[in-house]
C-alpha cells in the first residue's frame, strides 16, 4: 500500500462518480459511505452542519431554500453566488465542498490516503472553468495530476474493453450528462485514443429535459385550478424532483403518473412518452446541430463513422438511442455503463500518468507479456476553443479577435509570433496582450482570459524591438503565455492582470479617441410573454430567458442595477432594479411561469418608467418582443414619456414583430434591431458587453453626440 492509487473523479452537474485502478489493473467504482456508486451533486447548509449527497437531495425535495444544486453550470461565472446563513459561496467553493465529501469517500473505501487524482471536465469548458475546477480540488485537499475532457475519458474506458482490432475506428462520443452536453469524434487505434474534434454546450443537459416535464405538468395544473405550483419555492422544488422521477419512469414505460398538491388543490396527471418527446424535441435538435457542427469542422459525415458511443446518465432516455440509430444508421454502441464510463476513463488516465512517472506498476494475476489496460498508452486530446488575441484589422477601422491556435488542434500545442514594438530610453517599456478564447471575430463575444503585460523590455538604439510571444495549450488544456526579446534573447517578466471592466474602446476605431459617460447604470429588461412566445415547444421564450441571463452575465453589478418586467395582456414587475445577482437570475427564470397564454394588449413602458424615474445615473429600457402590439398608441405615448426623462430605449424584435414599430418606440433607429430567434442570445450578449464598462457608460465621439447602442457593434 505504499504505491499511490490511481483515482478518477467524474465531477458531474447532477451526480458525481469515483473510480480507481484496483490491484488487478482494472477500473472499479468506489462506492460512497452510503453504499452507492452515484453521489448527487447537491449540498444542504444547516446551521451547524453541511450535508452533501443523497441526504441533501432529500432536503431539496422538501423545498428547503438552503439547498444548492447544478452549480457546475456556473463554474467560471464571476457573478454567480449562493447565499445562505449569512455566508456566500461561488461555484468553485461549492465544488470544493462536494469534492471534499468525495475525498472522504475514497479514504473510507480504500482505507488508504495515498492517491493521485484525475478529474474530468466538459470538453467545452474554457480556461476559467478548467482553472476553477483545479482550484476547487486543491481546496478539497486532492492531489490532482491532470484534468481530462469527459468524452475523452469515456472513449478511453470504451477503448480498453472493445478495441481488439488493429484497424482504426472513428467513433462519435455523444455525452449527455445532467447539466452539460459534449460531442467528440475520436479515432481509436490499437494503442491510441486520438480526438479529432470536439464541441458542446455546458448549459444543455438532462435538467433541461426535466424542466420540460415540469412546465408540461404545471400547465395542466394551471389549466385545471387557475394557479401555478411553480410560484412558491417549496412547491417548485418538490415538482422538480418529481419531474426527474417521471422522466426516469418513462424510460421503461409508455406512460407515467404524477400527483401535484398545491394550495389545497390536488391534481393527478398521466404523461405519455410521446408527450415528453414532443415537449423536448427542440433540445434533441440542439444536440443534433452541435454534432453536425463538429463533423463539419473536421470534414466528416455520419457515414464516415464506425459507431456512436452514448454516455452520460441522460442518454438512458429512449429518444436519444432512437435518434442515434436514425441519424447514424447504426444502433448505439453498447457494453459500457453510461453512468460509470467517464469516471473509469479518468482512473485509467490517472494510472497512465503514474506509469509515466514511476514506470510499470505490478498487479495481481497479470500476464507480463500482455499490455495493461488493453494496450492503450497514448491519448491525443484537443481543445474545443481557439486561442487568440485582440488586434487591429488591416485598415485600423476596428478591433478584431485574431486566432493564433485554432480549435481542435492536438494538445499540448504552441505557436509563436513576432511583434514589433517601439521603445523609449526614458520609459519603462512594456507590451500588453489581451488573450481571447473563442472563434467569434468580435472580441467581446469570446472569453477574454486576461490582460498579459510583459515588462522590462530593453530600449534599442533605433527605437524599435522585436518581441516573440508564445501561446500554448498545455496537456490540461490550460493556457500558458511567455515572451522574449529577440535582440538579447531574454525572457520577459509577465504580469497577468484582470480584464478591465471598461472595454468600451473595443467598440471604437483604433485610430479614434473616445470618452465615456460616467455614473450609475440602471437597466430594466422587459420581455414579451404573449402566447406566441410559447409556440414551438416554448423555444422563443426559452431563448429569450437565456438571452437575458447572458446580458446580465456581461454586466458589472457593482455599479449596475437590473430590473425585470414581463408583459402580455397585463404587465408585471418581476423585480425592481437591484444589483443582487441571485434575485435578478431568479426573476428572469420566473418569466416562464407568469402571464401565460395571452396576447400583447399591455405595454411595459409605464412600469419601466416608474422603476427607473427615482434612480440616479444612466437609464436603459431593453424591450424584446416577437409579435404585433394591439395598443400601439398608448405604448408610443409611454415610450415618449420615458425618452423625455433621458431613458434610452432599445427595442429588439423577431418573428412577427413590426420592424417599423420597433424604430418608433426605440430612442433611435440604431437602437432598434430586428433579428431572428437564433441570434437573440448573441444580440443580448453584445448589448451587455457594450454596457459593461466600469463607468457604466456608452462610448461616444469627442463631439459628445450620442449614437445608438447597436451602432457600437454593427
Characterization of the model:
- α4 (150-162) packs across α10 (341-358).
- Helix content is 29%, strand content 30%.
- With 714 residues, the chain is α+β, with helices and mostly antiparallel strands.
- The chain is built from 16 helices and 36 strands.
- The longest helix has 20 residues, at 91-110.
- It folds into 4 domains: 5-203 and 288-382, ATPase, nucleotide binding domain (Nucleotidyltransferase, domain 5, 2-Layer Sandwich); 206-281, Actin, Chain A, domain 4 (Alpha-Beta Complex), CATH 3.90.640; 387-499, Substrate Binding Domain Of DNAk, Chain A, domain 1, CATH 2.60.34.10; 515-712, von Willebrand factor, type A domain (Rossmann fold).
- Strands 1, 2, 3, 4, 10 and 11 form a 6-stranded mixed sheet that branches. It has a 6-stranded mixed sheet with strand order 17-12-13-14-18-21, sandwiched between helices.
